[in-house]
Amino acid sequence: MKIEVFVPFGSCVCDFAPFMEKIMRVTAKFKNLVEIQMKSTNSSEASKYGVQGIGVVIEEQIKLFQDFDEKEFEDAILKRLNRKPYN
């Protein structure tokens, strides 16, 4: 499962460190099932998804922005995993 994480690359990492810690705490539970891609908030992908600030996009479908809580993020991952066929 692809998880795209959008952060402002030109900013101090201290500006988005708590956000990244939240991302890592949740995705660690799914470490063999997720692929995390870091992308700039100024990237073409950010424009494509309408991401204007710190945020995350799950499987090009679910968008969550900086103030989401960990349960909301975990639930979004589980929702997408339940739609994927099992091999």
Can you describe this structure in just a few lines?
The protein has helices at residues 17-27, 44-49, 70-83; strands at residues 2-7, 35-40, 55-58, 62-65.
Kindly list the characteristics that best describe this protein.
4 strands, Glutaredoxin, globular, four-stranded mixed β-sheet, 87 residues, alpha+beta
Overall geometry comes to globular
Task: Fill in the CATH topology.
Answer: Glutaredoxin
User: CATH top level?
Assistant: Alpha Beta
Helix share of residues?
Answer: 25-40%
Broad structural category: alpha+beta
The CATH superfamily is identified as Glutaredoxin
Main β-sheet, spatial strand arrangement: 2-1-3-4
Low-pLDDT residue intervals, each spanning 5 or more residues: none
The total of beta strands comes to 4
Main sheet attributes: strand count, strand direction, barrel closure: 4 strands, mixed
CA-CA gap between termini: 14 Å
The radius of gyration is 13 Å
The DSSP helix count reads 3
Please outline the helices and strands.
Layout: E1 2-7, H1 17-27, E2 35-40, H2 44-49, E3 55-58, E4 62-65, H3 70-83
Parallel strand pairs: 1-2
Antiparallel strand pairs: 1-3, 3-4
Helix pairs in contact: 1-3
Structure explained in plain terms:
Helix 1 crosses helix 3 (70-83). By secondary structure, the chain is of the alpha+beta class. The chain has a single domain (2-83), classed as Glutaredoxin (3-Layer(aba) Sandwich), CATH 3.40.30.10. It starts with a strand and ends with a helix. It has a 4-stranded mixed beta sheet with strand order 2-1-3-4. It is globular. It contains 3 helices and 4 strands.
